[in-house]
Design brief:
46% of the residues lie in helices and 14% in strands. It is of the alpha/beta class. It has a single domain, classed as P-loop containing nucleotide triphosphate hydrolases (Rossmann fold, 3-Layer(aba) Sandwich). A 5-stranded parallel sheet has the order 2-3-1-4-5, sandwiched between helices. Helix 1 crosses helix 7. The protein is globular, with a radius of gyration of 15 Å.
């Protein structure tokens, strides 16, 4: 693995393709995959289901659980792809993103494209109304890899693997 990268955090707002790209990337690399949405506490899920944006306090235990999962994979020397919005720098800091062992892959897309994608999909609990809140919250990373979401997911995965020299 390049620079001992052990965790890739595939990040961005809803509709950017985190889960799709993350699953494909994990399969390509033979790494484990976790969709952070699957680890939200029930209270968070209910809030999002009715269109209520989560507060930092709501996210704290969830982010701590994600950090613990990441650390466990690193202790066992298992590569991990984590699909997670981590919209704020403080969230990435809490997860331990260091751009060496834990690298962000920011899936960047125009708001209009994100909106179209969100309108065309069904999510078990993420209200479509939350996209604007996520865009307002987003603090784009200043490091890591930025990848345009316009190409097909398979091409995005090739770009990530090549850019990060993972194979």
């Amino acid at each position: 693995m390049r620079n001992r990268t052990e965790v890739l955090v595939v990040m961005g707002p809803m509709g950017c393709g985190k889960t799709t790209v993350g699953r494909l990337l994990a399969a390509r690399l033979g790494w484990a995959f976790i969709d952070a949405d699957d680890l939200h506490p029930r209270e968070n899920v209910e809030k999002m289901r009715v269109g209520i944006a989560l507060s930092d306090e709501d996210r704290q235990p969830w982010l701590e659980r994600l950090r613990d999962e990441m650390q466990d994979h690193m202790r066992r020397n298992h590569g991990l792809i984590l699909a997670c919005s981590v919209l704020k720098k403080a969230y990435r800091d809490l997860l331990g993103v260091d751009q060496a062992r834990i690298v962000t892959v920011y899936l960047k897309g125009a708001p209009e494209l994100l909106s179209r994608r969100v309108m065309m999909r069904e999510h078990p609990y993420m209200s479509r109304d939350l996209l604007q809140s996520q865009l307002d919250t987003l603090e784009e990373p200043t490091a890591g890899l930025w990848v345009d979401i316009e190409p097909p997911p398979e091409e995005i995965v090739r770009t990530i693997v090549t850019s990060l020299e993972l194979m």
